[in-house]
Amino acid sequence: MNQLSRAAGDGPSLLGRDDPPAFETVNAAGRTPVLLVCDHASRTVPSALGRLGLGDDHFDRHIAYDIGAAEVTRRLADALDAPALLGGYSRLVIDLNRPPGHPESIPEVSDGTAIPGNRGLGETAQRQRVAMLFEPYHDAIHEAIAGLWRRGEAPPLFSVHSFSPRFGKTARPWDVGVLWNRDPRLAQPLMEKLALRGFRVGDNLPYSGRELAYTINLHGAAAGLANCVVEINQDLIADRAGVERWAGILAEVMGEILRLDGVHRVRQY
Description:
The chain is of the alpha/beta class.
């Protein structure tokens, strides 16, 4: 047992009997050698944290989760016959796409909204969230990649997110963004194929994968696996029709990309 796990054992457990697990596995036996992940899939908060002192309306907002991203990921996993892992708790509890200790890992303020349950959080409480929510998710990604890799092909890592159409007073005009750092093997053809379909595509917009894309860097880039993030405008996937449309688009496009030469090779950039 590591130090973080021991720290999590000090005091009452973070997760109760009725709380869901730290992550959700979809189509674990999927035969296509690519792993789908969705860091911000859930708006759930452990019952012990009492909704972090926020009203229920805040959990319908982007600050709590990536609206529509979980549903797109599940349908994409089915369409590609690929495994997927989805984070089980709200980014307001702990952000799975930030390293522990990062100022945005357990935010005290998000998009101008104070998070009372995160204010003045002690070291033990922070370590408990890391040990019980963050580490199990990332351990599961490690294991899923290893399982796919043992079949013979290096599996790309594809992360699904959504973004809000406005940030403060600033409009975000893109339909979809593609985030990447140095490895262009998924990102470049993805942007090209989406643009050819008439979509407004942001290259490292509205966020930049060169500034912080923790999950794909940790599990993809560090191992030389092809990787990128897709960010879909949440208004386009806010209902079932939008989810099905975008899952279909991504299934078609990613199906083509996964057949490209070099996508299943280890390469450092």
